[in-house]
């Protein structure tokens, strides 16, 4: 007899438990008790013989279920390991992107141009001259200052108007350039911009398809400081990406390193960059089938 379900086995052998182990132990006990070795190698009657073969068939079915369950568990574990392995690079990529976003946002929020002090100084001088122009009596009451400054003269009016004009233009120019610099810094988070940086790095520095992470990091940082990011056979490279404004530095070495790690991580994910097993302080990589 061939069994197709545990319910058939439970019914034939009058077993109440749903546990495969309990069912198998109960059936195995029947098989042992009906084994022909207990009766000199022969079955006492046909009923005992039939019961023995039923028990044997039931155990074969139960062992098959157990084997299949083990196989399913192994397959599920293999699939799980595969999913975890695939998630590790993705999680690292997401972590690097979030880290870069945080650092760039912080750099933008704390950005201060080196022209900040001149801008404030010019504004203060303009405010003082404006006050004297509007209230000339303040100078007349001071015999020392009135000897050098005449707020009612046409020359003073020209100076005041010039300061007012230059101060306004200076504020507009610095504000506009600061906003442009901040927006262009945000471009460093874009994949296509990072790809261009890496292509620029390869063209300028790679000779044997090998490079260190530190080399890429310093290239990104120095390119920012030299206003050369994005410049690749294009005269408008400075207009593509610039992180300097009147000598202001809004990119840090940390941001440069984060960008380098992002580029390398994406390259490893796409199997165009491979880490070499070389004992150095800085990780060394090699290009593989990069086009």
From TrEMBL:
What is the superkingdom listed in this entry's lineage? Bacteria
Q: Keywords for this entry? A: Membrane, Transmembrane, Transmembrane helix
Task: Give TM regions.
Answer: 116-135, 155-175
| Protein name, per record | J domain-containing protein
Species, as recorded: Flavobacterium amnicola
